[in-house]
Amino acid sequence: MIGKIKEYLAKLNKQLLIVLSIVILLLIIKLPNYKVLSIFNSINENTIVVDPGHGGIDGGAGKKNDILEKDINLQVSAKLKKELIVEGFQVIMTREEDVSLENFSNIKGSRYRRDLDARKTIINNNKPLAFISIHCNSSKKTSAKGIKVYYYPESIEGEKLAKSISQSIDENFYKAYMKEENLRTEILTEDFFILRETDYPGVLIEVGFLTNPEENKLLREDEYQRQIARAIKKGILKYLE
Ligand SMILES: [Zn+2]
Known about the structure:
The protein is an alpha/beta fold. It folds into two domains: about 1-40; about 45-240, Aminopeptidase (3-Layer(aba) Sandwich). The chain is about 50% helix and about 15% strand. It has helices at about 1-40, 70-85, 110-125, 155-175, 195, 215-220, 220-240, and strands at about 45-50, 90-95, 130-135, 150, 185-190, 200-210. The chain has a six-stranded mixed β-sheet with strand order 2-1-3-6-4-5, with helices on both faces. α2 (about 70-85) links the parallel β1 (about 45-50) and β2. The protein is elongated and about 105 Å long. Zinc ion binds near residues 54 and 69.
């Protein structure tokens, strides 16, 4: 009888040992896998996406033989990227060069629509704290001027970000740099694709009018661009506080 019990216990131990071994083995296999996966899937929690509007075949606003919107957008965006990196953010640019992005989209649609879809995908895939689309404005009225910040009508976070950036531009750019006491950034809502179709707080900033002779000249200047970029960055920082 005792012999049988011993045998049974030994069997039980063996089974237990096998189960335990499997559990340990699974843990060994699973845990590093999980870690590896989480590294590969890891979305930097400190990411900001900067989206220079237009590019390549799509010049955006601007006259022939004059500077094009796509170029100013990229120059200001590159400066914003630098500013944000200094603050420790990971910055993802939707484009770093003079290219359009339609080839990165799988959807059917116009070249323009696919370009925007690719930008949307980059923003959503990177799960940013915020994203900023940089554009330049144009108007039939050459007197039209100034910086405009757009957010999506239903976005509470977009509104907060827009207000924070506008306030910073008013203080740090208009007042402190341009010595313009009376100029104010305009905050507007607009149903822009890039604002509507993205899942993260974002704004579209028109940094000035290429059709305004004075701003057309200023927008080409390195220091002018840098000051705008710095003011935008300070607004983002304030928003994230
Ligand atoms: Zn534009």
